[in-house]
Every structure is written in structure tokens, then in C-alpha cells.
Design a protein that fits this description.
The chain has 374 residues and is mainly α. Helices cover 66% and strands 6% of the residues. The chain is elongated, with a radius of gyration of 43 Å.
Length: 374
């Protein structure tokens, strides 16, 4: 076997840079903004649920006495109304009266528990807004083929993300279950004594234990939520990372292709140069270095109160200006310091500074006198 037959080539060395590549660059502001508009944010559902659960049990702790009192009053009122609606003939209540009584009872129950539910919902919404800021979008609700594609769905089910979610759920269930067990274990003696208590007292004891357990679970759940929020931010940052080529492409799209911008700038410079060369014949004098700089100056009181520069150039362009001036019969005057100062300090189409008035005026006066003498 020949020696070069044993050489193994890594074809990745010949791949176009950035065609694939590793995502090593942090996401740009544009990509994060686009993802935000699509509803992709670093948000922990666990944290929102934890705060909502904590708010639920806190308001229960505050409102439970009033709720119990209102429930008892509602029961007494409905029971008395039921007795009034019962016919004296056969001791039965009509379906119409029973339906009306049931609807009234449902409304009363809803009003009693409404403060608890509304508080939990408000807290959940506020926690979500605090995580991702308020910017509603309907794009996540739009139907996507990938969501109903069975192949894509199968891949999502067995993806790494779903496996991590499963592990988190298992850990959460074990920890919260253990916390609930330890809370109830300390109340076993009281629970065994429920048989000897009146119904109202027994319900009160069970409610007290349930609320205390709920508060402990909620507090621990918030710790889990903050940990999940940190993980979600890290995961979102990793998912949003870009390859070097993606960053370059985005920069090109935002700023424009440098090659195209260069050609546009070149065309603009050429157009400006043509206009400048067309203005040389209208100048009164061209002041030169004599080889490096050439500045064409014109005095027109209708444009400026002082002489102004209509053309200027360096090296090759200076030679072109002098040639154009010679062809048009414009006077060419050599003054090295003045030419250099005009070239570097006066913009094209701008009047000369006051400190150069006298020098330029002397040159223009000499030219005007020479013309009159001629």
C-alpha cells in the first residue's frame, strides 16, 4: 500500500467558516429582542406557582375565620329558605325553587372565596411580570405545524429538556412530600383526638393544620422556584448563543454589507469630485503648494461675505485641479503656507476663516488689478 493512502483527512478543515460551528458567542440585543417578540423568555413557572401558593395560604390564614362565619350564615339562611319553600301539602320543594336556591347558593360561595382566588391570581401575574417585564404578545398562541407534527412531538417527549423537567418534578415531589409528612407527624396526637371533638372544632383543627402545612410547603416551594429561575436564565442564555458567523451575518444585515457600503461611498466621492471639478473654472484663484496641495477660492458676495473654497485636492487631485484651472484661464498662485492651511482647515464650500482674510484679499486684489491692467 502506498504511503499517501494512509493519510486521513479531516474534511471539517475544508468547511466554510461558520457554516456550522459551535455557538460560543452571547446573544446580541437584536436576537434577544426578536426572541422576546416571539414569546421566548427566561421564566420559571415554578416561581410564579410558588408565590401564588404562598399568597393563597396567607390569605386563607387571614380570611379563614371570616370565611367560616360567612359559610355558616349562608348555610343557615339557605336552610331557612328551603323550609319556607317546602309545600305544606306533600313536604316537597319544586324544581324551580330548588334551582333558584342552588344558583343563589353558588353565587354566595363564589363571593366568599373570591378574595382568596383573586389574590392568588394577582400575585401569580405580578411574579411573571417581574420575571420578564410586561410585553404581551400573541405569537406563542399562533398555530405551528411543528406543534402538531407527530415526529416533532415524539422528539420533544424524549428530549433532554423533558428529561430534566422530569427529574425536577421527581425531586420536587419527594422534597415537598417529605416536608408535608414531617409537618403532619408532629400533629398525630391532635389528629387522633378528632373523634372526641365537636364537628366545628374538628374542622377548625384540620384547617389549622392544613394552612400551617401549606405555608411551610409554599415557603420551601419559593426556594425551589428561585433555583429554577436561575436555571432557566442560564439555559435561556445557552440556547440563545450564536456562532461567530451568525454574529457577522447579523451585523451585516443591520449595518449593511461593508463591500456594498464601500462601493456606495466610492460612488458618492466620485460624484462629489465631478461636481468639484466642474466648479474649478468659476474660481477666482487656485492657491498651490505647488505640488502637494491645490485649493480653488472664489469670492461672490451673493453667496458669502468672504471668499470660500470651491475645490481642493492633494497630490493627483491637486494636479487635476491645476490642469482644469489652466484650461479655464484661472490664475494659479503659489503660496505653500496658505495652501496647506486652507486645505486642512476649510471645508469644501465653506468660507475662509477671518485670520486669512488679509492674505487672500491681497492675492485677489493683485489678480483683479492684473486683469484690469491687461
Amino acid at each position: 500500500m502506498r504511503e499517501y493512502d494512509l493519510i486521513r483527512l479531516n474534511l471539517q478543515l475544508f468547511a466554510k467558516e461558520g457554516a456550522g460551528g459551535e455557538k460560543t458567542e452571547p446573544a446580541t440585543e437584536k436576537k434577544l429582542s426578536d426572541a422576546r417578540k416571539e414569546g421566548q423568555v427566561a421564566k420559571s413557572r415554578e416561581l410564579g406557582q410558588a408565590f401564588a401558593l404562598l399568597a393563597l395560604f396567607v390569605i386563607l390564614r387571614i380570611w379563614v375565620g371570616t370565611m367560616g362565619h360567612n359559610f355558616m350564615n349562608s348555610f343557615r339562611m339557605n336552610y331557612s329558605r328551603m323550609k319556607e319553600m317546602t309545600t305544606l301539602v306533600n313536604g316537597e320543594i319544586s324544581i324551580k325553587d330548588f334551582t333558584r336556591l342552588l344558583n343563589s347558593n353558588v353565587v354566595q360561595m363564589a363571593l366568599i372565596i373570591a378574595p382568596v382566588l383573586i389574590t392568588a391570581v394577582i400575585v401569580a401575574v405580578v411574579s411573571d411580570v417581574m420575571q420578564v417585564r410586561w410585553q404581551p404578545t400573541s405569537k406563542p398562541l399562533r398555530p405551528k405545524f411543528s406543534k402538531i407534527n407527530p415526529i416533532s412531538g415524539f422528539k420533544r417527549i424524549f428530549s433532554k429538556e423533558k428529561l430534566v423537567d422530569l427529574l425536577k418534578s421527581l425531586v420536587k415531589i419527594v422534597l415537598l412530600g417529605y416536608l408535608a409528612y414531617t409537618t403532619i407527624r408532629g400533629e398525630f396526637a391532635l389528629l387522633f383526638a378528632l373523634y372526641d371533638m365537636e364537628l366545628i372544632r374538628a374542622v377548625s383543627v384540620i384547617g389549622e393544620i392544613a394552612i400551617n402545612m401549606g405555608l411551610k410547603i409554599s415557603a420551601f416551594y419559593i426556594v425551589i422556584g428561585f433555583a429554577d429561575f436561575g436555571y432557566q436564565k442560564w439555559k435561556f442564555a445557552e440556547d440563545m448563543k450564536m456562532t461567530k458567523q451568525e454574529v457577522k451575518d447579523e451585523w451585516k444585515n443591520a449595518e449593511g454589507d461593508p463591500a456594498i457600503k464601500g462601493r456606495q461611498k466610492q460612488r458618492m466621492m466620485e460624484a462629489s469630485r465631478r461636481r468639484m471639478m466642474q466648479a474649478v473654472p468659476s474660481a477666482d484663484v487656485v492657491i498651490t503648494n505647488p505640488t502637494h496641495f491645490a485649493v480653488a477660492v472664489k469670492y461672490d458676495v451673493e453667496v458669502f461675505d468672504a471668499p470660500f473654497v470651491v475645490a481642493k485636492g492633494e497630490d493627483f487631485l491637486a494636479a487635476r485641479i491645476k490642469e482644469r484651472a489652466a484650461e479655464a484661464g484661472v490664475e494659479i498662485v503659489e503660496n505653500k503656507p496658505l495652501a496647506r492651511m486652507l486645505y486642512y482647515n476649510v471645508d469644501l464650500g465653506s468660507p475662509i476663516p477671518p485670520e486669512l482674510y488679509q492674505t487672500v484679499a491681497e492675492i485677489l486684489a493683485a489678480i483683479y488689478n492684473a486683469r484690469q491692467a491687461g
